[in-house]
Amino acid sequence: MKDLSARKIVVASHNDGKLREIAQLIEPFGFEAKSAKEYGLPEPEETGTTFEQNAYIKAHAAATATGLPALSDDSGLMIDALGGDPGVYTADWATQDDGTRDFGKGMQRAEDAMQEAGAATPDRRTGRFVAVLCLCYPDGEAEYFRGEAEGTLVWPPRGTLGFGYDPVFKPNGFDITFGEMPAEQKHGWTPWQPTALSHRAKAFKKFAEAKLGG
Fold first, then answer.
1. Domains in the chain with CATH codes
2. Buried b (16+ CB within 10 A) or exposed e, 149-188
């Protein structure tokens, strides 16, 4: 596999929340990281049916357009009572008719579906966030790094930190949601939480260990 000794990378995302988290995670490694958004690249259509396929679509498009290694993230919420939905369609559940995303709407749709499925007690409201990082080179070669965070879905939403569905996800072992959790704690940077906690942090830890010597 190729290395990243040039310390230049494209973050293949237009999602401001993801860009902010990935920037926080990669900053300690001294990378020059610019986003696909900063390069003015269009968002490719995500036609895959797995996180890996969609992550590759985004990373490959950015890598071929810029001639630089590209790192993408595809992530979503998998709810056990819904057979793993919304999964790769997590963002779609929050998409409005005009194409913008309202994650309040997405969280409400997930809650309505759980109520219809009879998922009223905590033991029936289990699920996980999944994140897959894809590192793709301009020649199409790619590597994947997957992280998962197990937890329980709560209602009503709690907290204004994080982004997306964070306010309804309470990770196992905690009494607060990702939406109530500071970034340092969510990513596992604090003395009281020294290991990766979030799905994205777990995937990034694997990426860092494999490619950055972290």
1. 8-212 (3.90.950.10)
2. bebbbbeebbeebbbbbbbbbbbeebebbbbbbebebbbb
Q: Is the pLDDT of residue 107 over 70?
A: yes
In sequence order, what DSSP letters do the residues of the chain get, joined into one string?
Answer: ----TT-EEEE----HHHHHHHHHHHGGGT-EEEETTTTTPPPPP---SSHHHHHHHHHHHHHHHHSS-EEEEEEEEEEGGGTT-BGGGTTGGGB-TTS-B-HHHHHHHHHHHHHHTT--SGGGSEEEEEEEEEEE-TTS-EEEEEEEEEEEE-SS---SSSSTTGGGEEETT-SS-GGGS-HHHHHT-BTTB-S--SHHHHHHHHHIIIII--
CB 74 within 8 A of CB 47: no
Q: Are 25 and 77 in contact (CB under 8 A)?
A: no
| Whole-structure pTM value | 0.89
16 is catalytic: no
Tokens standing for residue 210: 């494999």
Residue 73 reports pLDDT greater than 70: yes
Active-site hit among 74, 92, 97, 112: 74
pLDDT tens, residue by residue, 182-204: 988 888 765 555 578 999 989 98
Give CA–CA dist 209/153, Å, rounded.
Answer: 31
- Return d(Cα 71, Cα 55) in angstroms, integer: 9
- Poorest-confidence range of 1-5, 16-20, 208-212? 1-5
